[in-house]
Design goal:
Radius of gyration: 19 Å
CATH architecture: 3 Solenoid
Helix content: 10-25%
Strand order of the largest sheet: 2-5-8-13-16-18-19
Strand content: 25-35%
Number of helices: 4
Length: 192
């Protein structure tokens, strides 16, 4: 006898797939963005301004002098807000079913993954959840790091390469590992 037979529990995937997760308006935006992101990728690497304009056309709030690599994936531009002088690196994955906010002068490095979407695993229909992510000003999400839903990375914090973060990260702290753990306080050279 399997565990499933013993507990009498089973997933209801058909309920999940039949549930309307997005309004007609959002569905239309998704279709239009499918074409928009082709243009986004075709804009050569050093031409950041046209990508900023394109993302703003799709509802993103993009600050001044923001650099976003043309290989980055922005899932829903209308759920992205990024402050002045910030950057998103090569092949970063911004899975923003929920809102993702990135403060000014923050860096999302290459292949980092910000995941603002999940499912309620306690419900047999696995309904979609879209909790936000907030990345503070001057924070750095290093290469290949993963930041999960409903996480706040504080101002000036560093999430080390390949770290996996499911809990809030305190301001000016450095975390690393899987799961991410506190390493030390970030101190800037020349600061008092």
């Amino acid at each position: 006898m399997t565990d499933q037979q013993q507990t009498g529990q089973t997933l209801r995937i058909e309920d999940n797939r039949s549930e309307r997760k997005y309004t007609i308006g959002i569905q239309l935006c998704r279709i239009l963005w499918a074409f928009g992101k082709v243009v986004f990728r075709l804009v050569p690497r050093p031409l950041y301004a046209p990508r900023r304009v394109l993302l703003r056309m799709f509802g993103a709030k993009i600050g001044a002098q923001v650099n976003i690599a043309n290989t980055a994936t922005i899932y829903f531009p209308w759920n992205l807000e990024i402050g002045d002088w910030s950057s998103i690196g090569e092949h970063a994955y911004i899975y923003n079913l929920g809102k993702i906010t990135v403060g000014e002068k923050a860096t999302i490095s290459q292949r980092a993954h910000l995941c603002a979407g999940s499912h309620d695993y306690t419900d047999p229909a696995l309904p979609l959840l879209t909790p936000p992510i907030h990345i503070g000003a001057q924070a750095w999400i290093c290469a290949d790091a993963f930041v999960g839903p409903n996480v706040t990375v504080g101002e000036g914090a560093v999430v080390g390469a390949c770290a996996v973060v499911f809990k809030d990260v305190e301001s000016w702290s450095i975390v690393a590992g899987n799961p991410a753990r506190f390493v030390k306080i970030r101190e800037m050279k020349g600061s008092q």
